[in-house]
Specification:
Number of helices: 14
Strand order of the largest sheet: 3-2-1-4-5-6-7
Helix content: 40-55%
Strand content: 15-25%
Number of strands: 13
Largest sheet: 7 strands, parallel
Order of helices and strands: EHEHEHEHEHEHEHEHEHEHEHEEHHH
Distance between the termini: 17 Å
Length: 374
């Protein structure tokens, strides 16, 4: 099995990070995988650092005849027998390239982000007809695919993104390292969130809740982990200004981008996931794998992950007051935090183990190849 993986994105978020994780897991299984990405993008640089074989495409527009021809030549030369893309925009390059080749190469498309655009016109019917299977990372994305694209139900499979349960294991992390780095006292509780700086991730609600809670409790610190992606620096500055407006400069810690996420999560006492509309929520699964009690918005992909009242608490999305109320329940109940911690880790291991999900995707690959060969 020789696979061309595709993610032509210049951003750096969950989709791009998971693409590299998925490629590495396939390589560990001795499956030959090469990556198609945008030159000098963040994913390109990270793939180089991880010794992943790379091919590049300079396409910026949806339709680029020269890049289509180059890709068809690459597929033919390298004899890829399956292509898997993580970005819907890539279909405008891949589907025409396969059409030129007239080869029965299976095409797998993972839908990572929901869309409200109806894609059932003539051009999209051409693109989606070429897809062998589309993998939806959550129930809401599966429904979105069925409602907005020409794909039939038999071509859509639910397959959540996964997390490395060995890497994200509370038994293997030292909770004191990051606390010491930022001067957090032993009697202080850290409430944290992990997300890139982008509107809709819930930073405003997080700070609103922090403002309310700091007026009641002295022993709280709030940690925001992440950085602005391409074109989002203005939003990051807005959030930092809001911190000053709320007089929280001494209470909110901005860590920036971190590679030691298990250690960062280990330092937190409560994890929040306030995203307005998340297709899935890989950061939430990572936190649950680390045994973190959590408070999350009651929307979209989160509902596939959290069991309200068992692994965490749900709050009304975009409602900072409700977020504060739910956080206060956990602040005042160490016993509830412990209960949620154990349940969260158990659910993550049982449902979102990357090893198990890699087994499942390989079976889908084999099924797709057999389907095309028959």
């Amino acid at each position: 099995m020789k696979i061309l993986y595709s993610c032509l994105s210049q951003s750096w978020g969950g989709m791009e990070m998971f693409t590299l994780t998925a490629v590495e897991k396939l390589l560990e299984r001795n499956i030959e995988v090469e990556l198609l990405c945008y030159p000098n993008s963040k994913i390109y640089k990270e793939a180089l650092n991880r010794n992943i074989k790379i091919h590049t495409s300079h396409t910026k527009n949806y339709f680029h005849p020269l890049q289509i021809i180059k890709l068809s030549q690459l597929i033919n030369k390298e004899k890829f027998n399956l292509i898997h893309t993580q970005a819907s925009k890539d279909l405008w390059l891949i589907a025409p390239a396969l059409k030129i080749l007239r080869r029965n190469v299976p095409l797998i498309f993972t839908k990572q982000v929901g869309s409200y655009i109806i894609k059932k016109d003539m051009f999209h019917r051409f693109l989606y007809k070429r897809i062998t299977y589309s993998l939806a990372i959550s129930s809401v994305i599966k429904n979105n695919l069925f409602q907005t694209t020409p794909l039939t139900e038999d071509k859509i499979k639910l397959l959540h993104n996964g997390v490395d349960m060995k890497k994200f294991n509370p038994d293997n992390a030292d909770s004191t390292i990051v606390r010491k780095e930022f001067g957090i006292k032993n009697n202080e509780l850290i409430i944290g969130m992990l997300a890139r700086f982008s509107w809709g991730k819930g930073h405003e609600e997080f700070l609103h809740a922090a403002k309310i809670l700091k007026s009641k409790y002295e022993n709280l610190k709030f940690m925001i982990v992440g950085q602005a992606s391409r074109g989002e620096n203005e939003y990051e500055e807005k959030i930092k200004k809001l911190t000053k407006d709320y007089h929280l400069e001494n209470d909110v810690i901005f860590t920036g981008f971190r590679k030691d996420i298990p250690q960062v999560l280990a330092a937190m006492d409560i994890f929040t996931f306030p995203s307005h509309s998340e297709a899935f929520g890989i950061a939430l699964v990572e936190a649950m794998a680390m045994g973190k009690p959590n408070v999350c918005s009651n929307s979209d992909g989160v509902l596939d992950i959290v069991i309200d009242g068992t692994t965490g608490l749900l709050f009304q999305k975009q409602d900072g007051k409700d977020l504060a109320d739910k956080l206060e329940i956990l602040i005042n109940s160490p016993g509830k935090r412990k209960e949620f911690s154990l349940a969260a880790r158990k659910r993550a291991v049982n449902n979102f183990d990357l090893e198990v999900l890699t087994d499942k995707v390989i079976e889908i690959y084999k099924e797709a190849i057999n389907l095309k060969n028959n």
